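Dig into this one:

. . .
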Amino acid sequence: MELTMTISHKIPLARAFITDQELSAVNEVLRSGWLTHGPKNSEFEAQFADYIGVKHAISMNSCTSALFLALVANDIKGEVILPSFTFVASANAVVTAGAMPVFADISLKTYTIDPYSIESFLNDKTEAIMVVHYGGQCCEMDKISEICRKHNLLLIEDSAETIGGMYKGKKSGNWGIGCFSFFPTKNITTGEGGMFTTNNDTLAEKVRAYTGHGIVKSTFERIKTQKPWFRAASYPGYNFRMSNILAAIGVEQMKKIDRMNDKRRERSFQLLDELEDAEGITTPFIDKNSHHVFQMFTIRVESRLRDGLVHYLKEKGIESSVHFDPPVHKHPFYEKYADTTLMNTEEVSNSILTLPMYPEITREEISYISETLKTWCTSI
């Protein structure tokens, strides 16, 4: 089979959907003079909490900070079970918080943490489970939540890749403590940034203080008091704040999150349909209980062919990548924490490949990607 379609430009792996609304919002904040954490943060947080369906959303500088504070604010120092098939930030948060990472295996279908693998690692040192919703699809949250309830474990959701994703009608970040990323490749972006979600009033107050040097009231809140200069730390905190500028971008992004996710789903289902008969390619499995928001569109091929396919696509003007190789338990620092073989994790890591996916990708571009892949299939 020869490639019949042509395209006059390169197709990026991801592209943030930024419009005049974001530009105007940033300009408004710059002209206001209030550049640090301020009124736009409050607006962004209220939007986000309402969207996820939780009482509290706390904006901060990254999802990593949210993961870290989920552990620190709950004084987790024992073992935390999490998948190795994730970005290293998940494990870094565990170690820097003073806890012990324990790596569990994933499902060969969804690439999310396997509840049965979680159970095999439980012991009297286990204090928390950190799930990672992969590429826009949630983990099996009913089973995992039940494990946490049964063993009195803290449940933390690394929802960096699944803003708007749902399992059995309930959004990610509403099952446990939600931790979200607004990196440019994510379902919405603020450039850099994160969000922490919870229904626990006491935890929310504590985490808010931790993000701003341990001081319970922010500068914006203190200016309304008689002593705005009075800054007393209740905790040994950090500077994890998100600026008013970035929050303004978030406010505008939240206004169109469902529209952007719908576009991702529409183009992803087009690609699924067009690759249905492509031999040698495993397309994403979609759990019937899951509302997949396709932060990434991944395929799998034979491990011996994967790297060559990445280079082939690049030659054809299609940017692709691998998420994630190596898995975290194979990183030099984390090898000492891995005393078991994670067969599914290693199989997926060696064979997975990420294709372009973003709201503005066109039908023509999707068809070009699918035809390019089919052409490659006939050549191997």
The longest strand covers residues 126-132. The chain has a mean pLDDT of 96. The domain at 257-379 is CATH 3.90.1150.10 (Aspartate Aminotransferase, domain 1).
